[in-house]
Design a protein that fits this description.
Layout (H helix, E strand, L loop, with lengths): L4 E17 L2 E15 L2 E7 L12 H18 L5 H8 L6 H19 L3 H5 L5 E3 L1 E4 L4 H14 L3 E5 L6 H10 L4 E5 L9 H5 L9 E2 L7 H10 L4 E3 L6 H10 L4 E4 L1 H4 L2 H13 L4 E3 L6 H10 L33 E3 L12 H7 E8 L1
Parallel strand pairs: 5-6, 6-7, 7-8, 8-9, 9-10, 10-11
Antiparallel strand pairs: 1-2, 1-13, 2-3, 4-12
Helix pairs in contact: 1-3, 2-3, 5-6, 9-11
The protein binds 2-succinylbenzoate and magnesium ion (MG).
């Protein structure tokens, strides 16, 4: 199809619970939405970049700049664009996976809406509902335990705790004592060095599903060494930037589990390739999260319905993040699961009122 316009919309959506990053505490999620129009169809994508380059080199204003200056112009100049061909069209732009993923999702959504097919079906979903976990930030232990209790009561099937040096064994012990049978895992967001292997091995007695991204993004050999010194499985998040890197990580023994985030790998089509690389080696994957609105969440839930996604994802319900989501049908937890959308494209409908109230700026790019 021929893309007529690319709209870049920044919204600020109030978070129900503050979210801490290395740069401060967020009370609103600052999000870049991408809308493409083609003939009489529109498609929506969501960029998962944060306001600061703390999780990844990308940040939301930078993603908007590269979309405006380099990515959207290539799409608008092309006589015809397909989601499958977008990777090659955008390949001259090095990096910027989150910006590319947002544009790809918008194009995929438009294309699938035209054809009346769901994203889930297109990606290869085999489930109608997906098993959900929840990621809990670092809080004083009493507050942390109260939050975990509430999420368990709400029906979440597994809980992920954030850890860092000085906040690891104690929170895990506190939560494990209260919930002996809870599926529990931790995420260090690259906060350790391999020198801390003994400290991380001290988590082994707590029967964790995994330790996510203990070491630096580029330290695959360190993760392989750590994997030999702890019994808890290592999962990689930040390190897995493509299907090719996933193959390398698995060949090196750097991880036994992979967190798949479409934004981190450049889009949902590459995310499927990461899934395929892992599935071919019987390595379980799960769908990560970046505090998405219903747009990105719908796509994540579709992805999480693929066969290799055998572990609960950070695909929590909309109300874990937002009192009012930007879509008309927010995702609601039912017995610890979310329902995979079946409508055309992502299957969700943007609520124009919520969107207008949350909008900070809109720029429309045309050929
Ligand atoms: O490391 O998985 C992560 C959120 C923002 C950036 C990185 C991560 C996370 C989460 C929260 O863990 C996942 C979610 O609830 O969306
Ligand atoms: Mg993580």
């Amino acid at each position: 199809m021929k893309i007529d316009a690319v709209e870049l919309r920044r919204i600020a959506l109030p978070l129900v619970a503050p979210f801490r990053t290395a740069f401060g505490t967020l009370t609103d999620r600052d999000i870049l939405l991408v809308r493409v129009t083609a003939d009489d169809v529109e498609g929506w994508g969501e960029c998962v970049a944060f306001p600061d380059p703390g999780y990844s080199p990308e940040y939301v204003a930078g993603a908007q700049a590269v979309l405006r200056e380099f990515l959207a112009p290539r799409v608008l100049a092309a006589p015809t664009v397909t989601a499958a061909g977008l990777g090659n069209l955008l390949a001259p732009v090095v990096g910027h996976p989150m910006a590319k993923a947002a544009l790809e999702l918008a194009v995929l959504d438009a294309e699938l809406r035209t054809g009346g097919r769901s994203l889930a079906e297109h990606l290869g979903a085999v489930r109608t509902t997906v098993d959900c976990g929840v990621s809990v930030g670092m809080f004083p232990l009493d507050e942390l335990c109260a939050q975990v209790d509430a999420y368990v009561d709400a029906g979440y099937h597994r809980v992920k705790l954030k850890i860092e040096p000085g906040f690891d064994v104690e929170p895990v012990r506190a939560v494990r004592e209260r919930h002996p049978d809870l599926a529990l895992q931790v995420d260090a967001n690259a906060a350790y060095t391999v020198g801390a292997a003994d400290r991380l091995a001290a988590l082994d007695p707590f029967d964790l599903l995994m330790i996510e991204q203990p070491l630096a993004e580029d330290d695959l050999l360190g993760h392989a060494e750590l994997a030999r010194r702890v019994t808890t499985p290592i999962c990689l998040d930040e390190s897995i930037t493509s299907a090719s890197v996933a193959e390398t990580a698995l060949a090196l023994g750097a991880c036994r589990i992979v967190n798949v985030k479409a934004g981190r790998v450049g889009g949902y089509l590459e995310a499927v390739r990461v899934h395929d690389v892992c599935a071919a080696r019987s390595v379980p994957v799960w769908c990560g999260g970046m505090l998405e609105t219903g747009i990105g969440r719908a796509a994540n839930v579709a992805l999480a319905a693929l066969p290799g996604f055998t572990l609960p994802g950070d695909t929590s319900a909309s109300d874990r993040y937002y009192a009012r989501d930007v879509v008309t049908d927010p995702f609601v937890l039912d017995d610890g699961r979310l329902t995979v959308p079946t409508g055309p494209g992502t299957g969700v409908t943007v609520d124009p009122e919520v969107l207008a109230a949350a909008t900070i700026s809109v720029e429309t790019l045309r050929a």
